[in-house]
Amino acid sequence: MLRKLMKYDLKSLFKLLLPVYLVGLLLAVVNGFFMLPAQLDAAIFDNTITSVLLDVFETLSLFSICSILLIANLWCVIRVYNSVFAKEGYLTNTLPVSHHTVIISKLLSCFIALAVSGLVVLLLLGIFSYGYLEFAFTFADVEIVVAEVLESLEGIQISAVVLFVVFMLVGTLAGMLQVLLSMAIGHLTRHPIILGIVVYFGIQYLLIQPVTSVVAFNLIESFSDFSISADGDVLWGIYYQTMGLILALNAIWGAIFYGGTAFILKRKLNLQ
């Protein structure tokens, strides 16, 4: 049943996102392969109107591409709210599935949509930049840059990379669960959207930020004895301790947010 729910959620999410991707691709291709290379012709700037139009079009195109992630985030929030807490929620909440299945379906679907959107943005930015890169760099320059990057990565421990990936995943899921809980609590009131926003920022600035600040302050105090010229082992120890503590904190927040949302969905409090 989880697979069917995710299939429905992904279909509804990408129904809007796919056209947005296509528009972004069109703008990136036009800029990367036609508009930007055309500016190498100095004569084009003799015409002030043409020059201004090129700058405006580039700015709007770049803004459109970068706004894909914002659109994806907003669309995920809208779809989750409509399918769980609004009128469509009647169907979702009467399905023969547990509330855990509903929550996990929404989390995984939104996570996939956001991950795909992030990859699309990187791809489109690369295409957009092609007009600059083709004429600004030679293959020899690219080889030198790649060699320097690979050399700098040799000293990074694999466990550090794994810890960072896990940290990002847990942090992202905790943030998504915070939004879910805010929507769930807000829906218990007569003004669900407004109160949901208030609850979200209340959790962020009255709970998460103060606790995180205390943890950060204690970390700074514990690291105050180390010299700036500390060796690699000490610095890696600081990295692991810092990332580990913040990871644990995000995991705790995520568990609390999940529990609160699950309780509301299980009790079907004020759900249509």
Give a verbal description of the structure.
There is one protein chain. By secondary structure, the protein is mainly α. It has helices at 2-38, 48-66, 68-84, 89-93, 99-128, 130-136, 139-153, 158-186, 192-223, 232-267. The chain is globular and about 60 Å long.
End-to-end Cα distance: 22 Å
| Tally of helical runs | 10
- Rounded to the nearest angstrom, the radius of gyration is 24 Å
Q: Biggest sheet: strands, sense, closure? A: none
Unreliable segments (pLDDT under 50, ≥5 consecutive)?
none
Order of helices and strands: HHHHHHHHHH
Average residue-wise pLDDT: 81
- What class do helices, strands and sheet pairing give? mainly alpha
Strand content: under 5%
User: Residue share in helices?
Assistant: over 70%
- Overall strand count: 0
Q: What coarse outline follows from CA principal-axis ratios? A: globular
Short précis:
This protein is mainly alpha-helical and 272 residues long. Helices cover 83% and strands 0% of the residues.
